[in-house]
Amino acid sequence: MATTAPAEAMAQNEKVLSDALAAASLSDKDVETKPELEEGEIEEEEDDGNPKTVFDSAARFNLKHPLYAKWTMYFDSLASKATTKTEQTSIPNASAHGGWLDDIRRVMEFDSVEEFWGLYNNIVPPSQLPGKANYYLFKDGIIPAWEDAQNKNGGKWAIQVPRDKSKAQIDQMWLYTMLAAIGETFESGVDGSAPERSDLVTGVIMSCRPGFYRIALWTRDAPDVSLPETDELMKRILTIGRYFKVSVLGYAEDQKLMTGGFQTEILFESHKDSERKGNKNKLTI
Ligand code: MGP
């Protein structure tokens, strides 16, 4: 049955309603409205001065986990050739390297785990890079060139895989290589022996080419390839190569590498030999 409210009750309801509206408009005026966030902008949180990890506050963490060393990420591609260099993106003393470094741009320096992930989460992964491009991650201000004093007596371990068959794996291969570099674990034994800090690796390079991907890790010294495995430097270089193959890339130690039907080898050669194209002085694992 429908009911009709008495006039007195109706009037009371109206008063309650108008009081509520008045209160609401008052509080609207008193409350400070926050500016709308732009796309990608992070809401500022109050800094109470207490120590915070990135898990406590993604925007205002003040506790970082330091790396052993400072690292710099560099990049070059056809696109970077066209960009203007600024003081921030150019490499100091680049002209001393005969034009080789002209197109390489400094992306960012970092010395903590948090900054590494901040960088990694904001750059394009290798699988998404078109054509020819390189990422270079080098330590302690070392320039990604053979000519740098820390590289000139060194060499590199490198693996080259076909581009079309390796797109699904290449991002993880590169990420794990960078983590081993900045964690300085390359001289750990593949038998699971405790990681030791490795100071032989100066940097790692991800090269994207139209037909293949190559990951290289540069070392500051290079043994004569005819030396026996008992030679101290040879032993260290082989340990690094095996750690790269087994612990970083996930192959079995004695595995002959086939990627999508192609034979893929992990090779070491000195930079001096790289400069002399066509040389055969290479180590294989
Ligand atoms: P690369 O890019 O390492 O080889 O070197 P890739 O990918 O086989 O060849 P690309 O042409 O597809 O890039 C290519 C060439 O760059 C070498 O032959 C050198 O002429 C020059 N180059 C490479 N590196 C690492 C250096 C370096 O450190 N210093 C100088 N001066 N030249 C370099």
TrEMBL record:
Originating organism: Cutaneotrichosporon cavernicola
A biological process from GO: regulation of translation
Ranges of Basic and acidic residues composition bias in the record: 27-37
InterPro entries tied to this protein: TIF_eIF4e-like (IPR023398), TIF_eIF_4E (IPR001040)
Residue ranges with Acidic residues bias: 38-48
Keyword terms, alphabetized: Initiation factor, Protein biosynthesis, RNA-binding, Translation regulation
Molecular function terms from GO: RNA 7-methylguanosine cap binding; translation initiation factor activity
Keyword tRNA-binding: no
Protein name: Eukaryotic translation initiation factor 4E
Region (Disordered): 24-53
Chain's gene name: TIF45
